[in-house]
Amino acid sequence: MAQRQLPMFPEGSTEVTHDLAFEKRDGSVTYFYGSLPVFTHNENDAASFKMITAQFYINGYVKQMDIVRAFGVTPISVKRAVKLYQEEGVQGFYAEKKTRGTAVLTDDVLLKAQQYLNEGQEPCDVADQLGIKRDTFSKAIRTGRLHNIKKKNIKH
After folding, report:
1. pLDDT by residue (tens digit) across 65-105?
2. Could you tell me if 28 and 52 lie in one domain?
3. Under the phi-then-psi rule, with left for phi > 0, alpha for psi from -120 to 50, and beta for the rest, what region is 2?
4. What's the pLDDT tens digit per position in 92-147?
């Protein structure tokens, strides 16, 4: 008859559930399932931490609240990690962060825009002419990147 092996976690480890524990030692975090080490990462490696805890949840080893209690993280951070794991898998945690595209108001565009403004053209017309959103253009004027030449009112 097969006998169930009791979890035998190393001394100094912290229990997450009856079957899962982790240990921090010499700058590394090691996770144990039963008595076997299953994953190790650097203690400052947030991506690996999020990935492995999400994987433990997806595989049914822990509940989200077990992760929150054991590691002192917020419930929303666990939910986000689980969602990322479900949508993109392991590689989603290590992918390059998505950033905005290149700036619309490059030096060349700013120079051309300022020339049009100096000629007395209206900012909204210049924005349309250069294919720039009017809000973006007016923000550049408000922040001083562009200078709107005010037309002088001539009274007769």
Report:
1. 999 999 999 999 999 999 999 999 999 999 988 776 667 88
2. yes
3. beta
4. 999 988 776 667 888 898 899 999 999 999 999 999 999 999 998 888 899 888 88
Question: Using CA atoms, how far apart are residues 102 and 88, in angstroms rounded to an integer?
Answer: 25
pTM of the full predicted structure?
0.61
The rounded radius of gyration (Å) of the Cα atoms in the chain is: 29
Cβ within 8 Å of residue 56, ≥6 positions away: 16, 20, 31, 62, 67
- Distance of alpha carbon 136 from alpha carbon 92, whole angstroms: 32
Strand, helix or coil for residue 105? coil
How many domains in the chain?
2
Query: Is 25 in the same domain as 77?
Result: yes
Q: Of the given ranges (2-6, 49-53, 59-63), which has the lowest mean pLDDT?
A: 2-6
**Domain-located, residue 65:** yes
